[in-house]
Amino acid sequence: MKKVQKLLISALCVAMGASALIACGDDTGKGGNKGGGKYTVTFYDGTTVLSTQEVAKGETAVKPATNPDKQGYDFVRWCATPTYSQVFDFNAPITANTKVYAGFRSTAPDDHTWYLAGKSSTSALFAESGDFKEFKGDDADSLPASITLEKDQNKGNKFTFTADFYVEDKFQILNTVDGWGDKQIGYGYMTPELYSTENTAPFYFGGGLSGVNKTADILVGQSGNYTLTLMVDTEGKLTELSYERNGDAAEVSSDYTHYYIKGENITAWEDMYNDATKMRQNGDKYTLEIYLKQNDQFMFISKQSVDGQITSGPNIKADKLTEASKAFVDGTNENITAKAAGTYTFVYDATAETLSVTFDAEKTPKQYDYYFDGKFGDVNWGDYQSDPDTFKLTANNGVYTYTAVTLAADDEIVIRSYDAGTETLGWDNMATTYNFEYLNKTSDAFVNNSGNIKVVTAGTYDVTFDSYSKMIKITIHNDSPDIYDIYLKGAGLTNSAGTQSPTDWNHGFAEEWRMVLNSDETAYEITVTITAGDGNRFGLALYDKGATSGNGSYIGVSALGTDGDANDKFGTSGDFTCTTTGKYKIVYTIATGKVDIYTVTE
Predict the structure, then answer these.
(1) First CA to last CA distance, the chain
(2) Among 25-39, 346-360, 441-455, 558-572, where is mean pLDDT lowest?
(3) Which residues contact 395 (CB under 8 A, 6 or more apart)?
């Protein structure tokens, strides 16, 4: 979502009682009026004088009785600047020679296809498109009609859209050529007489009176059925958005069910409720397009609201797969496994209770650069934009880190992303903000503050962002590499002391199942005897040092490296499953996050 964190100087024409602007070079008393008490108000079309008025000092100019005509243009309003960036206030006293400009909008037709990009937690308005999704390039071919503005057949620069909007909805208007960029339509394009910062207004700007970024989110403060009208000026001066409330919006039930993907690597088996994991609802169908690595194992979990009580609902597992879907995913076990790396589209039909899958091997994730942003120490929101090298996360095989950052209580942080290689970082060309919803919540040292990650416990931390799982992890910075506790959990294991693993996979934080940092301080190791068999499976559970509760981050066979001589004996998906009984040393390398398994000979 393109959330605006700072306010820029407004380009909005706002008639809020501001004084009429004094023309450059026309100081009070100059221009032949010295001591005369009268000033000249000149009305222009560009540099062409349309008319003049002599106005006594402190009096107001009179709005011309008729609006000027200009072929190929519509007159919109009188403006105080030649760029039409401010409405001229006819109620403001004249205290100097003043220029007033006729604001003309070109009637030339606009050939763009315009659509809404937004988010609604109440309706299915954006369910088909995805929250704030960009339709550009190849994606433009799949632009849903449900969010497309309709072009007026008689006026080629007029576009309209009618729908139910609900309190807390937010959106912007984009076109399929430029997408997120300078031409996106945010609140800064709202017609001046409709401008409001009151959250009870039908549509409002969430900032203050000091100005509004042209591409700020349009926020809904009053539910209703609205018609939006976008008038496009192909010359770029008076493109504007207006709206009309047609009546009340249809009532929607407060009860709901949302589905989210949960998997071995895509969420480290954590319940993650965010835009990257959420299926989009359209009626009784739920859709998620997501890139998955080969052999990643997953399911879909649900959250339900019934009579206002939010609970966990039923899971979607392999038994819901359609037969055709099994060409792309393995459904022989309870969980679902991706057969190959690529982009998967999942559609769950809640009425039929079936999960269908399509697959595109050629569609790979877009590449981004990631930056650390927040308010901490001497750093303020947006400082990364002027000093990107200082705040850019360091990449390592798809995992990005920002290390040794000192945070005090009440500091707030997020991670911003931009298209890879972007040189000028701004609010307008930002790709995504990753916030508290993307945090691996293994610690109570951080809480949610309006989406930002707010610090509860001061300290020096390392921040890690996994671009595959879209997960943020924050750990205490330690100069020693011994910063984890990693335990083996599973069945069919016997440790060096002859203790057999619990059949319920509960390592119980017992020392005999904890991996130990090696002498080189480069990896964690443990030696165990492993019995082959279908029921004998295991995995690694990774915790912050000293943790005594929780499930940790699960590490399965997809983390296998390339160094271990016995790696090929432990399966290709899901948990580690041994094919040959023997004694093995299991090694987790810190720098790579990979697991290698070595045969131990007596």
Answers:
(1) 58
(2) 25-39
(3) none
Between 591 and 391, whose confidence is greater? Answer: 391
Bridge partners (DSSP) listed for residue 316? 300
d(CA 190, CA 194): 7
Flag the least confident range among 157-166, 203-212, 328-337.
203-212
CB 459 within 8 A of CB 448: no
Task: Measure Cα distances from 556 to 85, 414, 488, 542 in Å.
Answer: 58, 29, 11, 11
Q: How confident is the model at residue 434 (pLDDT cuts 50, 70, 90)?
A: very high
Query: What is the mean predicted confidence (pLDDT) over 93-119?
Result: 95
* Token pair of 578 as six digits: 């041994």
Read off the pLDDT band of 538 (50, 70, 90): very high
Measure the CA–CA gap between 35 and 42, rounded to whole angstroms: 20
The long-range contacts involving 354-362, CB below 8 angstroms and separated by at least 24 positions, are 354/320, 354/321, 354/322, 355/300, 355/316, 355/320, 355/321, 355/322, 355/325, 356/321, 356/322, 356/324, 356/325, 357/321, 357/322, 357/325, 357/328, 357/329, 358/328, 359/327, 359/328
Top-confidence residue, 502 or 48: 48
Query: In angstroms, rounded to a whole number, what is the distance separating the alpha carbons of residues 9 and 130?
Result: 31
Q: How far, in Å, CA of 331 to CA of 326, rounded? A: 7
**What is the DSSP code (8-state) at residue 437?**
G
For residue 91, what are its two tokens? 């109620």
Give pairs for 131-135: CB < 8 Å, separation 24+. Answer: 131/1, 131/275, 131/278, 131/280, 132/1, 132/2, 132/172, 132/275, 134/174, 134/179, 134/180, 135/174, 135/176, 135/179
Q: Which of 30-39, 307-316, 411-420, 539-548 has the lowest mean pLDDT?
A: 30-39
The partner residues of 10 in beta bridges, in order of sequence, read none
pLDDT of amino acid 309:
67
Contacts of 205 (CB under 8 A, 6+ apart): 187, 190, 195, 196, 197, 212, 216, 218, 219
Kind of pairing, strands 446-449 and 432-434?
unpaired
CB 221 within 8 A of CB 207: no
> Checking phi first, is residue 421 left (phi over 0); if not, alpha (psi -120 to 50) or beta?
left
Angstrom CA distances, 532 to 334, 344, 580, stand at 21, 33, 5
CB 341 within 8 A of CB 363: no
Q: Which amino acid is at 263?
A: G
Could you tell me where the beta strands, DSSP code E, fall in 107-180? 114-119, 150-151, 158-165, 170-175
Q: CA dist 18 to 13, 201, 329, Å?
A: 11, 21, 63
Q: What angle do CA 523, 525, 530 make, to 5 degrees?
A: 145
Within 8 A by CB and 6+ apart from 161, the residues are 116, 147, 148, 149, 150, 227, 228, 230
DSSP secondary structure, 365-409, as one string: PPPEEEEEEEEBTTB-TTHHHH-HHHHBPEEETTEEEEEEEEE-T
SS percent in the chain: helix, strand, coil, step 5: 5, 40, 55
Average pLDDT, the chain: 87
The β-bridge relationship of strands 38-45 and 98-106 is parallel
Task: For residues 331 and 325, give the distance between their C-alpha atoms in angstroms, rounded to a whole number.
Answer: 9
152 DSSP 8-state letter: P
Rounded distance, CA 272 to CA 270, Å? 6
